[in-house]
Structure formats: structure tokens, C-alpha cells
Design a protein that fits this description.
The complex is a heterodimer of chains A (311) and B (276). Chain A has 311 residues and is an all-alpha fold. Chain A has helices at residues 12-20, 25-54, 71-78, 82-111, 118-130, 133-143, 150-157, 171-199, 203-211, 216-227, 229-245, 248-253, 265-274, 279-308, and strands at 22-23, 56-57, 66-67. In chain A, α4 packs parallel to α8 (171-199) and α8 (171-199) runs antiparallel to α11. The two termini of chain A are 14 Å apart. Residues 1-20 and 306-311 of chain A have low confidence and may be disordered. Chain B is mainly α and 276 residues long. Chain B folds into two domains: 7-57, no CATH class; 65-270, MetI-like fold (Orthogonal Bundle). In chain B, 74% of the residues lie in helices and 1% in strands. Chain B contains 14 helices and one strand. Chain B is globular, with a radius of gyration of 23 Å. Classes of the chains: A mainly alpha (311), B mainly alpha (276). Chains A and B meet through α1, β1, α2, α4 and α5 of A and α1, α4, β1, α5 and α6 of B.
């Protein structure tokens, strides 16, 4: 793969040359400056605003800036609606990431095999990855529709249901179907990361093990799976972050409703800010969300540290 | 050498085809719905495959819904954001692949962190910043934000490509009288073309699909990009599903084809070289 890892396979000579090109930060600035400026503008500035606002008494459009210490955080923790949302978010993140990984592992192994039409199966997996999550959520809303959806049509033809079931509208089932859509859109990326990991395993060691009489399950369990550790770690962390931040699925399919019954902290913070104009609690929750992501990003940086300095 | 069809191979194939089907099926259902008549869309019992193939939906949708405006906004925002990403990331990626300098490690971590922080987590800060610049409801704000959140992928990918191109080729061009910038433009960039194409496609598709920021800062109907514009279909009592899905087909099919073209480079850019 001619990607960021390719420098490792470079002949020594270019590496030596690169190291000798040690230059000052000032001479780097014209080259990396525009990127730095953009990062400052879209990431660092909003973080500063978010944190500062969480300690002030202010409305969404308001210019009133009055320091009020931890009052917003106290209000947030006094909000009884927060706790079910927190529990649900925990269930959302770990449930989706667990099933995504558990399904992607065999899937990656499957499409790593040689069989006719393999290319088309890989292309099929690209669909949910390339398509807008908003549009994918719309088609699932329609498939799960009580009266006209494909799911109920099929189930009733098979005689499994006798009258229409409103899967997304029903509080007992709706959250599971939201989770399914999130798993559906997470699997392609995860599978491709694991597939890249599988393909990096040299063929000769697999063959050596098979000559020595190892069964294919033993080869997978004892040889391939341990070598997949790094891919698995990266895929898990990226998924944790993406699923925690996931917004369009819930927004399109239920708006977090009825009430707050299908909200996660991400959609809850959005609702507080932009629908209920409760900037104080919303920014406090935003800072908490940001803190959680920061911790996970820390793990990610640690996990990728070994390769990080060698771009 | 031809291997025989073993039972194991048949099991693999049927498993793989079944999985492939599951992942494309929703989009096939989307297509079938997009060519049904309104009566058939709401018929009870509904149908798996259209009885009447109403291809006219793909013509009528342009006059039935303001999708010209959505499409125009999406194109302006995605193309501009992609150009901005290229302008900003080519020099940065080139420099980090060729030189060592103070704070280089810090810059790389900053770029990686940008990739990890989704706009959703920062949306209130983003809203207030855009409001501060009086840029709510403008294309410019969306272009800059989309470029900023997607520059990491392009930097990783291009830096990888640049590193794989021997410095000696550029040095030879410089001995022949090129400046460093000319050497980059005339020698290195053409060799790194697959990387540039991948970066362009990835950024374009990411901006094309972006939802949360656009939902939050765009209010004029004619300035909304497709994903946001389309959600207004859903709020209506009588959803025009056939038109909705005709529009989503128009939005999805081109980007799926683009993604298939860059498939083999996607993982490298998204995991920043940490997965071989």
C-alpha cells in the first residue's frame, strides 16, 4: 500500500537525507502555516468558546457574558432527564462498538478469501460507507415503516406478524433499531481496516503453519488474531469516538423522541442548545462530552505513537 | 491452476454474497421506491418490486421539490472545500515528509486530534464562532469548516505518497535549474497523482455528506445542502417518498462510484498509517 506506512520500506539513503534536512520552525511556517491556521479556526477556537461559555450565564444569540462559576454544571446535574440519557449513551456506545467489531471480524476473514465475485462483495460494502448517513437513515426509516415498509411486508408474508408493528415508533423497540442502523454504517469501515490488517500478514508464515498441520481455526486463533491486535485496537477506538458523536441517525429517525426516550448525550446537548435554548446546561454537557472524547483520543494517540513520528 | 469447487468454497461464496446483499439491499429498496407511483408507495399491502415502473419520477422531482437549490449548494460547498483542502495540505504534507523541524511532532498530533474531533462535539462553539464573524447562513463558513475537519486525511495520505518519492528525483530537477517549488509542481505532484485524486474524492464525499454543521448554521431554504434540505421532506405529514428517494439516488450513486475508485487507499488515510 502506497500510504503513510510506505516510508518504512524506503531505501536507507532517502531516510538519511531527510534527517539531514533539519530546519527551524520559522522556515516551516510558510508551508504548514495555512493548515495550522485552519485547525486553529475550526477546532481550537470553538473549544475555547465552548469551555468559556459553560462558565457563563448566556443565551444562544445573547451577548451577555456573566461569569457564574459552576452554576451551569450544577443545573445540569440537577436535571433529572440527564441520567436516563447517560445510561442510554453508555448502552449505545458499547453495544454498537461490540457488535460492529464482533460482526466485522468474521466478515473481514470472509472477504479475504479468494472466490469469484469477491470484488462485487467489497463494492457492496462500500455503499453504506460512501452514502450519506442521513440518507441511509431515511431508507431504514422507510424499510421499518409500519404500513408500507419492506420489513413488515416480508414478516407478514412469512406469517410472523398479523398486524403492522411500528418498530421505530414503539418505545420498546425503537432504540434497538437505531442501534442496528449505527452498526450497519459502522461495519464497512471496520471491516476494511481489519481486512487491511489481515492482508499485511505474510503469506509464508500462514503456509508454514499449515504445512506443520495447523487447522484453519488454529491458524486464525493462534496466528492471525494476535497479529490483528493493532488493527483491532485502532478500529475500536475510532468506532468509540464515531459512535459517541453519532448524530444524524437519531436525529433523522426519532429526533431523540418521544420526549428524551431515544436521546444520547450528543443529541441531548444539541436539543438543549438549539431547541430549548438552554445554553448553560447544553455547554456544560458539551464540555463533558468533549472531555470524554479527549480521553479516548488520548488512548488513540498512545496506540499510534509508534508509527506517528515516521510519516 | 484451477482449484475445484469444494463444499467449503460454496459455503464461503454463499456467505459472502448474502452479506453483500444485506449491505446493498437498503439502496436497492431505495431505488425500487423511487420508481413507484405515489399510489403504489402507499398501497396496502405494499409491493417488493414496482408493479408500474414510473421512471418519470426522476424528471418530475426537479419541479416538485427545490432540489436544484440543494444540489447547487452541495456542489459549491463540496468543490470549494476540496480546493481549499488541496491548497492547504499539499505544502504541509510535502514539508513534513521532507524536513525535520521543531514542533513537528506537535503539529502531527494536532492534525491527528483534528481528525478525531467531530464537529458534532463542538457544535455550540462552532455556532457561536460563526455568529461572531457574522457568517451564519453563508457558504463561506461551511466551506472553511468542512475543509478544516477534513484536512487530516489529506495530510496523512499525501505525506505518505511524498515520502515514497525519492528526494533524488527532485534534486536532479533542481540541478537542472528548477526551484524547490517548481520541482514539487513539475516532478513530485505528477508522481503523487493517485494520492491527490484520493484526497480530492475523499474530501469531496465527506463535505457532500456533512450534516450537523449545515443543519445548525444554514437557515435559507435555497442555501441548504442536500442532506439538510432532504430532511425537510420527512417532517411533512404526507411524505413524498418516491421523490425523496429519487433525490437520494441521485446523491448517492455518484459518490459510491467515486469511493469504489479510491477503495485501496481509504484505510491508510483514515487510520493515519497505524494499520499496515
Amino acid at each position: 500500500m502506497a500510504t503513510a506506512t510506505s516510508s518504512e520500506t524506503k531505501p536507507q539513503s532517502t531516510k538519511k537525507l531527510k534527517v539531514s534536512h533539519n530546519v527551524s520552525f520559522l522556515s516551516a511556517l510558510p508551508w504548514i502555516g495555512p493548515a495550522l491556521f485552519l485547525i486553529f479556526l475550526v477546532v481550537i477556537w470553538p473549544v475555547v468558546i465552548l469551555v468559556r461559555t459553560s462558565f457563563t450565564d448566556i443565551s444562544l444569540a445573547g451577548s451577555l457574558l456573566e461569569f457564574n462559576g459552576l452554576a451551569n454544571y450544577r443545573d445540569l446535574f440537577a436535571n433529572v432527564d440527564l441520567y436516563p440519557v447517560l445510561r442510554r449513551t453508555f448502552f449505545w456506545v458499547f453495544g454498537i462498538v461490540f457488535f460492529t467489531i464482533a460482526l466485522s471480524l468474521p466478515l473481514a476473514q470472509l472477504i479475504n478469501q479468494n472466490f469469484p465475485g469477491r470484488k462485487f462483495v467489497r463494492w457492496a460494502l462500500i455503499f453504506p460507507w460512501a452514502a450519506s448517513v442521513v440518507m441511509t437513515s431515511m431508507i431504514w426509516t422507510w424499510i421499518l415503516d409500519a404500513y408500507s415498509g419492506e420489513l413488515n411486508l416480508t414478516l407478514s408474508e412469512l406469517g410472523l406478524i398479523s398486524e403492522p408493528v411500528d418498530w421505530v415508533g414503539n418505545p420498546g423497540t425503537s432504540f434497538y433499531f437505531l442501534m442496528w442502523v449505527a452498526i450497519f454504517v459502522s461495519i464497512p469501515f471496520t471491516t476494511f481496516v481489519l481486512l487491511a490488517g489481515l492482508q499485511s500478514i505474510p503469506n509464508d508464515i500462514v503456509e508454514a503453519a499449515s504445512v506443520d498441520g495447523a487447522t484453519s481455526w488454529q491458524i486464525y486463533r493462534r496466528l492471525k488474531f494476535p497479529l490483528l491486535r493493532n488493527s483491532l485496537l485502532i478500529a475500536t477506538i475510532i468506532n468509540l469516538i464515531n459512535v459517541f458523536n453519532s448524530f444524524p441517525i437519531i436525529w433523522v429517525m426519532t429526533r431523540g423522541g418521544p420526549g428524551y426516550d431515544t436521546d444520547t448525550t450528543t443529541t441531548f446537548a444539541y436539543k438543549l442548545a438549539f431547541i430549548e435554548s438552554n445554553m448553560g446546561q447544553s455547554t456544560a454537557l458539551g464540555v463533558l462530552n468533549f472531555g470524554i472524547i479527549l480521553i479516548v483520543v488520548g488512548f488513540y494517540l498512545k496506540a499510534t505513537k509508534a508509527t506517528r513520528t515516521e510519516v | 491452476m484451477k482449484k475445484g469447487i469444494t463444499p467449503k468454497k460454496i459455503a464461503t461464496m454463499s456467505g459472502a454474497y448474502f452479506v453483500g446483499w444485506i449491505f446493498v439491499y437498503p439502496y436497492i429498496n431505495m431505488f425500487f421506491t423511487s420508481v413507484k407511483t405515489r399510489e403504489e408507495v402507499y398501497a396496502t399491502p405494499s409491493t417488493h418490486i414496482p408493479v408500474v415502473w414510473q421512471w418519470r419520477n426522476y424528471i418530475d422531482v426537479w419541479s416538485e421539490a427545490p432540489i436544484w437549490g440543494y444540489l447547487k449548494s452541495s456542489l459549491i460547498i463540496s468543490i470549494s472545500a476540496t480546493l481549499l483542502v488541496l491548497i492547504v495540505t499539499i505544502p504541509a504534507a510535502y514539508f513534513i515528509s521532507r524536513y525535520r523541524f521543531k514542533f513537528r511532532g506537535f503539529f502531527l498530533i494536532l492534525v491527528l486530534a483534528t481528525q478525531m474531533f467531530s464537529p458534532t462535539a463542538l457544535i455550540i462553539g462552532i455556532f457561536k464562532e460563526v455568529d461572531f464573524f457574522n457568517a451564519l447562513d453563508t457558504y463561506l463558513a461551511l466551506i472553511i469548516l468542512n475543509a478544516g475537519f477534513n484536512l487530516a486525511f489529506a495530510i496523512w495520505l499525501l505525506a505518505g505518497f511524498f515520502s515514497s518519492i525519492p528526494v533524488e528525483i527532485e534534486e536532479a530537477a533542481m540541478i537542472d535549474g528548477c526551484t524547490r517549488v517548481q520541482a514539487l509542481r513539475k516532478v513530485t505532484l505528477p508522481i503523487a497523482l493517485p494520492g491527490l485524486v484520493t484526497a480530492v474524492i475523499f474530501t469531496f464525499v465527506a463535505a457532500w455528506n456533512e450534516f450537523t454543521i449545515a443543519l445548525t448554521i444554514m437557515s435559507s431554504v435555497d442555501k441548504k445542502p442536500l442532506p439538510v434540505g432532504l430532511t425537510s421532506f420527512i417532517g411533512q405529514y404526507d411524505v413524498a417518498w418516491e421523490y425523496l428517494f429519487a433525490t437520494t439516488m441521485i446523491a448517492i450513486v455518484p459518490v459510491v462510484i467515486l469511493f469504489i475508485m479510491i477503495e485501496k487507499y481509504l484505510v491508510g488515510g483514515l487510520t493515519a498509517g497505524s494499520v499496515k
